[in-house]
Amino acid sequence: DVPKVADSRGDSDGSRRGSLCDRHCAAINNVQGDLGDMGCHLHRPRVPPGRLAVGWTGHGALGGSHTHCDPVSPTAVPTPSCCQQHSEEVCESCVVKTTLTAENAVEANKLSNNYKFGFKKWKSHVTARPWEDRSEIVKELYSDLNVIRGPGGSTLTCGNILYLLLFGWWLSLLYVLVAAVMFITVTGAPYGWLCWDLAGYFLWPFGKVIQKVEVPKSQQVCEAGAGESSALLGGPTPHRWRPQCWAGTGHWHRAGTVAWLCLGYPALALAHGLVCVTAWLLIVLMPVAKLSARATSRVLLLPPERVLIRRLRMTEAPLEGEVILCCYRAANPYYYKYTVHGINVFAVNLLPLVLVTLVLGYVDSSNHLSGSATKFTLALLSIMPLSYYIGMAIASISAQSNFAVGAVVNATFGSITELTFYITALIKGSREGNRCYAEVVKSALTGTLVGCVLFVPGLCMVIGGIRHQEQRFNSRSAGVSSALLFLSVGGVFAPTLFSKVYGKLVCGECHNVTQNPLGHYLCHNCHFDLMDNNGTLYYSHVQPLVYTVSILLPAAYLIGLFFTLKTHTHIYDIHISDCHMPGHHHSAVVHWSRWRALVILLLSTLCMSACADLATEHISPILTNSPISQQYFISVTVLAMVPELPEIVNGIQFALQNNLSLSIEIGNCIAVQVCMLQIPILVLFTIFYPTNFTLVFSDLHVYASMFSVVLMNYIFMDGKCDYFQGTVLVMVYFILLAVYFFAPSPSGC
């Protein structure tokens, strides 16, 4: 029994046609086979509580017949609903029903928010995923290096060789030196033998195992011959046990232990700490970080007689002792998926950079330790993890709250990253009386608009098109965003067009090329002056138009929200589906509670303000000392796209899962928010804090923005795309970047 889709019109004719479509769906499903083999039970299933599925219905949904219902991740499961023509009854359009599964109600709410206009699209989970539902690749990422596997091929891999070149040789040499020191102390000779064995292990630890074994009795050790074997280990007794018979006091009271803790362990712990931090930052070498951390915390703190190092290929009988370390590979490319309390490892690694940036920026205010270029770069890099934390906090709060709270949080903090930088730059420009900061803000706004319209969807099309030959998306929802984008671009650039028509053209320098007073003149640095006659044109005509546009654009945004989320919700038809995996029941264990997410959101916003202040503080030397017009280029690229990197990554991940609708919506929603929320907020901010920001853009900004919007709508017209169309969008974006790169600086900067 295929779940029926309710017709939003509610009339009898719509119901009759819907029934016909459902009958065709059922017939086609019977022909295609039982989808129960794919884990999607469609025949009167019982959905267990906590195992919810979120569905979406619309034109050109997430196509692809090879995707299946998977509880591991919110994967799209299309159930084709074919509308065939008959003599009397014809369905108006083809509807593709897409079902998304979620482990719990919180994840289902997050997935629903992804398909709502005005809500931040977030790919990462906001709840802990059940361990049994994860793939073997992901399980291996979180497992300790203490599992012995069967023969899995040669250990001579590129990652293992890289370990040898980066860490293995000098770690082994350090262990040899520490072993020599321990032998010199005499009492630390057992630790010297241990370091000697570990020197060979850390030179090439792959295919070897370190065990924690039981200590044989003193009498058995003293009486044992050189060729005797241990029944426990099934092999020869380690030679470092033989020199002494330990009796009397405990191990930690021996003099050798004191020598080890004072002379040997600190140096080795420091070396392993350096290896651990370096390997963690490289991410793909994270098994090496686990290896060093486990060696420091476990192996080096054990009595030497309880540590046994063996090669796995020499082991004939099963090992009975506790396995402490067993490593096969030094590198794993899948560690980009690794998370710490729901936070991606990239965001974790970049978090210390924020602290370094703040300390270096505010302590070294006179630039003794580093220059302005270094501080500007660090401030921009710090914006990336802060944008991630803000996005994660918004998604967590929205998923655990009702619709009203989620809408308020998304509208309030959805653009906080960009607004923080723009307002900080405008304040600094107003204090210094430098109008170049206002031009930087305008260029960044245009760069965000052009990048989100061309680069973000184009890149997602290219990457998604490599895996999927043709991708489809919801053309109706994309049409809503496109209509709002046309409206917003027209409203934003209306004052600019008004100034071109009624403004007075003023040029800085003119030359008569014909030597005739009535001949042709060649002029440079021309612009339309709005302050002629004491600014009558600007204050009486342009400024009221700017305020009117700044009020109408947010109103249009609210109407768009009401249209898509209230009166025409069938465009984003979110419903509970019957697709589930039987036998699983999981309660929602959120990574961040609402209060924790709120605290992180506020702290990230505060740090974002500080980093934005540092970026604007140190951007002036870069702009003034550039041989070419870096102001345009830096603004439309770095300042515009760096805060959007988390959104770009989310869009790519959605595209790889054949979910191009969300990839396109990410770019469209950001572009719409730039025009309908960010620019009006900046205009209203200038009312309370006068700055040099006016809603009059250069010709280059106007032409680039309008051309990008027209091209985007042309590409998205048919509701399907491939990597070629994405390549066209990306290439046009790079052409515009080249234009900005070689464009002369704005007048007055």
UniProtKB/TrEMBL annotation:
One of its GO terms (biological process) is intracellular calcium ion homeostasis. It is found in: Endomembrane system. One of its GO terms (cellular component) is vacuolar membrane. One of its GO terms (molecular function) is calcium:proton antiporter activity. It comes from the Eukaryota. Its main location: membrane. Residues 158-208 form the Inner membrane component domain. The chain crosses the membrane at residues 161-184, 267-288, 343-363, 369-391, 403-424, 444-466, 478-498, 545-565, 666-688, 700-716, 723-743. InterPro entries: CaH_exchang, NaCa_Exmemb, NCX_ion-bd_dom_sf, YccF. Keywords: Antiport, Calcium, Calcium transport, Ion transport, Membrane, Phosphoprotein, Transmembrane, Transmembrane helix, Transport. Residues 376-494, 597-740 form the Sodium/calcium exchanger membrane region domain. It is a multi-pass membrane protein. This is VNX1 protein. The gene is Vnx1.
